């Protein structure tokens, strides 16, 4: 009997389970079933690939592996028809179409569709030259990045529109605002009306 297997020594009725796993106490009718079960605990890999002789613990893993040799790709993207051997590869690929980027760089805030792309990106950041916001712990590569970020916490508005004098705490917000001034429309200010347009 395999290590950990205990044969039941009591008299059992026909059809009762006779073999007990000494590790998890699951019961089996046949010693062969117990031996197969014991692979779960011992880590033995008994399913053999006929092509490359690689061994697997489960037949389902062997079947998935065989797709490498057959070239079969049963998982198809419904958007672009690209095919994949594994369902997790298809799920990873799908983020290309959704635009979802759940992995964020703690230093610069750039977003990525997968962890490996984030890890590759992080290599560009020097480990010893980061500046941390003491309020939210966000990291920056340069002091001016930290200074611009601090405006979020202080509420200071450092960027002013030269056309209507509206103030913004981010330069990007100001640039987006300025685009609005390029069309032909009227902006109502507190005291005057300014007409903007190409004249």
Protein described:
The chain is of the alpha+beta class. It folds into four domains: 5-42; 48-98, Double Stranded RNA Binding Domain, CATH 3.30.160.60; 106-154, Double Stranded RNA Binding Domain, CATH 3.30.160; 160-196, no CATH class. Helices cover 33% and strands 18% of the residues. It contains six helices and 15 strands. It has helices spanning 31-42, 59-70, 87-98, 115-122, 143-154, 171-180; strands spanning 5-7, 19-21, 27-28, 47-48, 55-56, 75-76, 83-84, 103-104, 111-112, 131-132, 139-140, 159-160, 167-168, 185-188, 193-196. Strand 2 (19-21) and strand 3 (27-28) form a beta hairpin. The longest helix has 12 residues, at 31-42. It is elongated, with a radius of gyration of 32 Å. The protein starts with a strand and ends with a strand. Mean pLDDT is 77; it is low at 1-12, 184-190 and 192-196.
What is the level-2 CATH architecture name of the largest domain? 2-Layer Sandwich
Overall outline: elongated
Number of domains: 4
Strand order of the largest sheet: 1-2-3
Mean pLDDT score: 77
- Total number of strands: 15
Distance between the termini: 96 Å
Task: Please tally the helical runs, counting DSSP H or I stretches of 4 or more residues.
Answer: 6
The amount of beta strand, in percent, is 15-25%
* Biggest sheet features: 3 strands, antiparallel
- The run of helices and strands is EEEHEEHEEHEEHEEHEEHEE
Question: CATH superfamily name of the largest domain?
Answer: Classic Zinc Finger
How many whole angstroms does the radius of gyration measure?
Answer: 32 Å
């Amino acid at each position: 009997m395999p290590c950990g297997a205990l044969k039941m020594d009591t008299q059992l009725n026909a059809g009762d389970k006779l073999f007990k796993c000494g590790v998890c106490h699951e019961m089996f009718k046949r010693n062969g079933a117990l031996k197969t079960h014991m692979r779960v605990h011992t880590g033995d890999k008994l399913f053999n690939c006929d092509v490359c002789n690689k061994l697997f613990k489960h037949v389902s893993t062997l079947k998935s592996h065989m797709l490498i040799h057959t070239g079969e790709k049963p998982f198809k993207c419904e958007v672009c028809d690209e095919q994949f051997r594994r369902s997790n590869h298809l799920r990873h690929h799908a983020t290309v179409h959704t635009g979802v980027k759940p992995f964020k760089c703690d230093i610069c805030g750039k977003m990525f569709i997968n962890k490996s792309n984030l890890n590759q990106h992080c290599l560009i950041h020097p480990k010893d030259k980061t500046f941390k916001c003491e309020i939210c712990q966000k990291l920056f590569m340069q002091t001016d990045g930290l200074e611009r970020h601090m405006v979020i916490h202080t509420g200071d508005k450092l960027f002013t529109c030269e056309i209507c004098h509206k103030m913004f705490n981010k330069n990007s917000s100001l640039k987006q605002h300025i685009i609005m001034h390029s069309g032909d429309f009227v902006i109502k200010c507190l005291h005057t009306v300014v007409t903007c347009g190409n004249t």
